[in-house]
Design a protein that fits this description.
Layout (H helix, E strand, L loop, with lengths): L1 H7 L1 H7 L3 H17 L9 H29 L9
Length: 83
């Protein structure tokens, strides 16, 4: 659901995902792309793409941190051999 919100309302999606600096950058990006998007129409998709990628990267970072914390707490998976 956060991905749909990030695609349709990029700054709001970023704020709800806990990324206020990315939301501010996205607002600046929206203004820039709105001005130059009149000539280069593909630029109108850039703020939405930025928001979706930023949300995805934040979620992957959270998953990675949770996995590392679980390994620290419980040890490596059974059958794991260090290289």
């Amino acid at each position: 659901m956060i991905y749909v919100l990030a695609a349709l309302l990029p700054p709001v999606g970023l704020l709800l995902n806990g990324q206020p600096f990315s939301a501010i950058f996205n607002l600046v990006l929206i203004v820039f792309c709105a001005v130059f998007g009149l000539f280069f129409h593909m630029l109108l998709l850039v703020p939405s793409a930025h928001a979706v990628i930023a949300v995805h990267m934040k979620r992957e970072d959270r998953r990675h941190r949770e996995m590392v914390e679980a390994i620290r707490r419980h040890g490596p998976p059974q059958g794991y051999r260090a290289p």
